[in-house]
Specification:
Layout (H helix, E strand, L loop, with lengths): L1 H19 L6 E3 L4 E3 L6 E5 L6 E9 L2 E6 L2 E4 L2 E4 L5 E2 L1 E12 L5 E11 L5 E5 L5 E4 L8 E6 L7 E10 L2 E4 L2 E12 L2 H4 L5 E9 L3 E4 L1 E3 L1
Antiparallel strand pairs: 1-8, 1-19, 2-5, 3-4, 3-17, 4-9, 5-9, 6-7, 9-10, 10-11, 10-12, 11-14, 12-13, 13-16, 14-15, 15-18, 16-17
């Protein structure tokens, strides 16, 4: 009797397993697959290492941002190549334009950040930092004293996690709760050392206090 029941049990378990796997989704635009970010998070907090000093970026200090949807990626010679902008696809890039952030001792960091959201479901996606990645600099690199923090594409792919939600007609929210980010530093005059900032392998984080609000796109 037990032998006869086994196939049915196996079938039932497989059915439950399939139900437990979340369905993949696409970003779908009502326009050309590109547009301005309506609202940038109130605060974005960067840390290069867990427990290390924080760098906080306020939305009012940014010049804005834009989003676009991308098709599937291909890898050639170890580098990512994407299809052009599309109005339906599994990846979205958020580009946050240059803004001013505050680091240790009130130090100003000028910041530019490209955040990619991929492998999405209706509720969350994975984060990455496509070129030029995220850069935070106290001064230009030709200065005698500067500290630069860089989160580049490299090992920063499939980072957990980016919560997503449809919040209205053709409007979505995207937040960053990314942990395990890899960062490197560049400095002149031991500027990073003075601020007690160091790079870290899969120990950094990017946390948003409130979500990005993006109009003209839906998760389907």
């Amino acid at each position: 009797m037990k032998v006869k029941m086994l196939p049915a049990c196996v079938t039932l378990l497989v059915g439950f397993a399939l139900l437990a796997v979340p369905a993949m989704a696409n970003f779908v635009s009502t326009g050309q697959g590109v547009g301005p970010i309506k609202t940038i998070p109130e605060t974005m907090t960067f840390k290069t290492v867990e427990g290390g000093p924080a760098i906080e970026c306020k939305s009012a200090e940014f010049g804005g941002g834009e989003w676009h949807i991308q098709g599937k990626a291909a890898i050639k010679q170890g580098k990512y190549f994407y299809h052009g902008i599309t109005n339906k696809g599994p990846r979205m890039q958020l580009k946050v334009l240059w803004g001013s952030c505050k680091g240790p001792n009130g130090t100003n960091f000028f910041t530019l950040c490209n955040l990619e959201i991929a492998e999405v479901t209706i509720h969350f996606g994975l984060g990455a930092f496509p070129a030029p990645g995220c850069e935070l600099l106290t001064a230009f690199r030709f200065s005698s004293h500067y500290c630069a923090i860089v989160a580049s594409q490299g090992s920063n792919t499939e980072l957990f996690e980016v919560p997503l939600a449809n919040v209205g007609k053709n409007t979505i929210e995207a937040s960053s709760q990314i942990k395990g980010m890899t960062t490197t530093i560049e400095e002149a005059g031991e500027e990073c050392k003075a601020l007690k900032i160091k790079g870290g392998q899969r120990t950094g984080s990017l946390i948003t206090k409130t979500p990005f609000i993006i109009e003209g796109v839906q998760l389907e």
